[in-house]
Amino acid sequence: MPVLRSSVDTASEAYLANRAGQLAAIAALDEQLGLARAGGGAKYAQRHRDRGRLLARERLELLVDQDSPLLELSSLAAWGTEFTVGASIVTCVGVVSGAECVLIAHDPTVRGGSMNPYTLRKNLRALEIARRNRLPVINLVESGGADLPTQSDLFVPAGRIFHDLTELSAMGIPTIALVFGNSTAGGAYVPGMCDYSVLVDGQAKVFLGGPPLVKMATGEEADDESLGGADMHSRISGLADHFAVDELDCIRIGRQIVAELHWRKLGPPASEPADPPLYDPDELLGIVSADFRVPFDPREVLARIVDGSRFGEYKPRYGTSLVTGWASVHGYPVGVLANARGVLFSEEAKKATEFILLANQSDTPLIFLQNTTGYMVGTQYEQGGIIKDGAKMINAVTNSAIPHITVNMAASFGAGNYGMSGRAYDPRFMFAWVNAKLAVMGAQQLAGVMSIVGRQSAESTGRAFDAEADEKRRAQIEAQIERESDAFFVSARLYDDGVIDPRDTRSVLGVALSAAHSGTIEGRRGFGVFRM
Hints:
alpha/beta; 8-stranded mixed β-sheet
């Protein structure tokens, strides 16, 4: 396979400006990730430790295999809202006893681990990743249940957690509950619906109604242990499969359960040499434009992500605004679709469609590297069939059965987001680089469109057009769209699985591809490759 050659000038003014912009954005990301890792803060972390308990992330570190990769998901959930960054829950893909699993850990230092609407979205997304990729689920439970002031946004959709846990079980995907503390009310059904449950002595409290509720409802005087303690559930109710004497014992038993699953991947193993790229991934910071409106060559990105910088380009002279071709990442063969100059024309749409069909024929997962302003508009392009050609590409993305992994490198606007396997098209994983933007269109374009529409409306009704008010409204709209298209804003709402440092892209893709290969890798059959 051909090897990509880089022509990046690391001393150029543009490179240095890009690098400075990216480093500033990464510093802002690191600050927010620090807040997520801090949970409820030092005061509540110390209170938790004083009770003789491990923090959520300490439990995860002990649960996963030593020195194994751990991919945290949705770290910025709830960013910019009244809730704590991270949404009082930690979700990740990690290796336990040799098996890749989805891990869901409540953070009891944040409002007792209670669930708010963003916690729910994050939990459900983790369960979806488990289902789509056939990954066992381990719940590390210590939660006070629903955040009651937000119950109107929780009660109905929260039932989906129970639905998904039981669906996973029916699909033969193991589910495990390690209960370290409270698991009350609706939360009591988590260990009840998991295939395996482990309760910690003196800490686990699993009951539908605690002592105060029991007293109010029936008049009965009861205590935590007799209602829902680990001893009772392991000896009397039978809810607990295993009785753990302390947290370390609970984690040990959890690892033992996974080992005894004898879990095996159904997808093919990595088959290509997993040698590192020839070029330093640190150079991505200078390659990627600080301003999304300035294009960059995605081949320079690929030269720092794919194995050995090897890339067999497909149709390099046709539809040149989209780069397509074959490579491997950490030994896993992949097809790549990467935007080169933002706009998708009919040629790019047809090229992408054919390439997606070929990938399905050869059972090869696809990586979409987004940097698109959408499909081309204008009389010439409408008459040339841009709608039907774009529809072919979107049709191919929709019906493709192989795993898709999407990374928004810089911009993802309009229907281009759909054609490049955006969130609505169910990629197995989706990530964004720290300076990426996502919206129906760029802020200036959207504000300009609104201004033109306003002017035309005034003219059609015979009203005077207020240019001063229009300018003010235009500035307000630009500011709103800039804020709402920001990577942090988008990730906070779970429209992707996390904002990442561009330098980590190869590692993130490697974990995602490995996870996807836990299930079968099989493209859609029933159609051949056709010319358009």
